[in-house]
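Worked example 3 (structure in, sequence out).
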């Protein structure tokens, strides 16, 4: 377990992925970490979207078709799919 107290690191050849599966860890550890240590550039937009999705899940919106559709829309604009106009 990494030093932040949640998640696991998975390695495959030269690639490593840090995966957090527990929602409470995301809300209570990961998001506050990135609120404290600001991300700059295009990844700041991805973090903003990540927080929106966490809020939707926290409110239970993901359990309704409209909420799930909203989450999928946010996801479709994140990372390499993001338009650089943000």
């Amino acid at each position: 377990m990494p030093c932040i107290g949640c998640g696991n690191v998975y390695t495959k050849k030269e690639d490593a992925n840090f995966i957090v599966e527990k929602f409470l860890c995301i809300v209570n550890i990961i998001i506050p970490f990135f609120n404290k240590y600001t991300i700059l550039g295009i990844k700041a937009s991805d973090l903003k979207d990540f927080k929106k999705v966490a809020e939707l899940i926290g409110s239970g919106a993901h359990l309704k078709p409209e909420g799930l559709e909203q989450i999928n829309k946010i996801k479709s604009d994140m990372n390499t799919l993001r338009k650089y106009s943000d």
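Notes: Strands lie at 8-12, 15-19. The longest helix spans residues 42-58.
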